């Protein structure tokens, strides 16, 4: 991948940490900064499709919308509660 040159202003304390890390790790300061920029870019990237997507049809009776899923969750919680309380609940 081709690299592009840019100017970045950083605080002196941050630059000092980068300089120390570069010496300690035996890499250039630029490499540390490139890695940080790459991680920042990935963290803010907008993907065209969701990370997890269905590639199979929904199971019969499966809840597919958020509101129904929330209602189903509360029904299951209520049922578990009733089961722990016995038939009096």
TrEMBL record:
Q: Please give the biological process terms from Gene Ontology that the record holds.
A: regulation of DNA-templated transcription
Name the coiled-coil region(s): none
Q: Where is this region: Disordered?
A: 58-89
Q: Which InterPro entries match?
A: CopG (IPR002145)
| Superkingdom of origin | Bacteria
All residue ranges annotated as the Ribbon-helix-helix protein CopG domain in the record: 4-40
- The protein depicted here goes by the name Ribbon-helix-helix protein CopG domain-containing protein
């Amino acid at each position: 991948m081709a690299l592009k040159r840019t100017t970045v202003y950083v605080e002196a304390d941050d630059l000092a940490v980068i300089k120390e890390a570069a010496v300690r790790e035996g890499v250039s300061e630029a490499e540390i900064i490139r890695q940080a920029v790459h991680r920042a870019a990935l963290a803010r990237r907008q993907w065209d499709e969701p990370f997890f997507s269905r590639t199979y049809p929904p199971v019969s009776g499966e809840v597919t919308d958020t509101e129904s899923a929330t209602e189903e969750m509360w029904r299951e919680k209520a049922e578990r509660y009733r089961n722990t309380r016995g038939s009096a609940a």
